[in-house]
Design goal:
This protein is an alpha/beta fold. The chain is built from 17 helices and eleven strands. Strands 3-2-1-4-5-6 form a six-stranded parallel sheet, with helices on both faces. A three-stranded antiparallel sheet has the order 7-8-9, covered by helices on one side. It has a two-stranded antiparallel ribbon with strand order 10-11. A hairpin with a 6-residue loop joins strand 10 (360-363) and strand 11. Helix 1 packs across helix 7 and helix 7 packs across helix 8 (224-231). It is elongated, with a radius of gyration of 26 Å. Mean pLDDT is 92; it is low at 1-24.
Length: 420
């Protein structure tokens, strides 16, 4: 599939009755005029470059000709498309090239020569073999910001280990502190990929600011292990400096009680958190209807409540279990107790707060418009660029023509299986 122009109309498929952004579009997006070339796959690099696209950058995504980014094949849940791919790749132009062929690699080098940013997360060593590692590219193009995203970094005994998200969650210790006392579990989202993506994104922004001052770009290096281990800050420092790893406590808190999710009479679950003893007394009086529990030595202090956690949880559980979810939340809110409804993903998709703040839009895809959230970064006077999710090779012809290739040259690459 090929089009003559990139999909630059940010809200061509937006809900017609919903404002496209926070206020009038009087300010340009901060990355307008920035061109990003990405040889990327899966989540870490694609999610990083999607943030750049949302802020106005032109992102040219280079994919394999035989199926493209392998995240395209993870599932078919998004109207026939892969949910990971839809999430991470809106607003990009897809170019399909065979980088094992010198002609395909030469095209990428022509694209990089006109780019501001290059991002790659190929298997360790693959980018260097192709001459697409950050050090090589920045030596040839001093203004270029080039990002290498890896699993474990470019050196050390783990440099060449496979680094899928779940594996890095294990190596970084996230799994060891997540779950129940009996069973460690991985996070339900690709936490290592997301951590690396967001550090790559912020690294690009920092490098572009530096380039604005010095005129020079430079390499940016991010590893999934480094990123996720940084996110382990609290339990890691607790263990290194306190000597004991925090216990796995499911939805409960290791050192605060009550702090857990409790079933309600209509089958829901309500999570509440009591942060101090004054809140406990209010909870006892106004929600539990047991004012004496507020001053009972077994419950009066947080230390006592943690020591008697089972009794504390039983007391709270009996009271909330007699109430419907809405009533339980209303009583907790009325008492000034922090609380939340434990929602499933269908409920999140209809969350009243997201709806009230008009956070949903529709983006174009090869199978038609799909719902998507506005980017979390809200810029006064600006609008997010939520472009279409591209089909594989949708922009190959447009992009190759823009770097000076003729239609005959492009046709020859397609005929020989170098481009699609």
């Amino acid at each position: 599939m090929d089009t003559d122009t990139p999909a630059d109309d940010a809200f061509a498929h937006a809900d017609p009755d919903t404002p496209a952004g926070p206020g009038p579009a009087t300010e340009p997006l901060p990355l307008e005029g920035v061109t990003v070339v990405a040889v990327e796959q899966a989540v870490a690099a694609p999610f990083a470059t999607r943030q750049l696209a949302d802020l106005g950058a032109r992102v040219v995504k280079v994919e394999r000709i035989d199926g493209g980014d392998f995240a395209r094949g993870y599932d078919t849940a998004a109207g026939g498309l892969a949910s990971h791919f839809v999430w991470c790749n809106r607003g990009k132009e897809s170019v399909a090239l065979d980088l094992k062929d010198p002609r395909g690699l030469a095209v990428v080098r022509r694209l990089v020569a006109g780019a501001d940013v290059f991002v790659q997360n190929l298997a360790q060593g693959a980018a260097a073999r192709l001459g697409l590692d950050a050090a090589t590219l920045c030596a040839a193009h001093p203004r270029l910001v080039a990002v290498d995203i890896s699993g474990y970094g470019p050196s050390g005994p783990y440099a060449h280990k496979r680094a899928y998200d779940m594996l890095v969650q294990c190596e970084a210790g996230l799994v060891s502190v997540t779950g129940t006392p009996e069973q460690p579990v991985k996070a339900g989202i690709p936490a290592a990929d997301i951590a690396a993506a967001m550090y790559a994104f912020s690294g690009v922004l920092a490098a572009l600011v530096r380039r604005g001052v010095t005129g020079r770009g430079g390499p940016v290096e991010v590893s999934m292990l480094d990123a996720l281990t940084e996110w382990m800050g609290h339990p890691l420092h607790h263990t290194m400096h306190g000597g004991a790893a925090p216990a796995r406590t499911g939805l409960a808190h290791a050192v605060i009680a009550p702090y857990d999710a409790y079933p309600t009479a209509d089958g829901g679950r309500v999570l509440l958190s009591v942060q101090n003893d004054r809140e406990w007394r209010r909870l006892a009086e106004q929600v539990l209807e047991r004012p004496e529990a507020g001053t009972d030595p077994a419950f009066a202090t947080n230390a006592a409540r943690v020591e008697h956690r089972e009794r504390t949880d039983a007391l709270v559980g009996r009271a909330l279990g007699a109430l419907g979810t809405d009533e339980a939340l209303a009583r907790l809110e009325g008492a000034g107790i922090a609380c939340a409804r434990l929602r499933d993903l269908h409920e999140v998709a209809e969350h009243p707060q997201l709806a009230a703040r008009e956070r949903w839009r529709r983006v174009g895809t090869p199978v038609g418009p799909l719902r998507a959230l506005l980017p979390p970064i809200t810029l006064p006077g600006g609008r997010a660029r939520m472009g279409d999710v591209p089909a594989l090779g949708e922009h190959t012809g447009t992009v190759l023509r823009a770097v000076g290739m003729t239609d005959d040259e492009i046709a020859a690459l397609r005929r020989d299986g170098v481009a699609a």
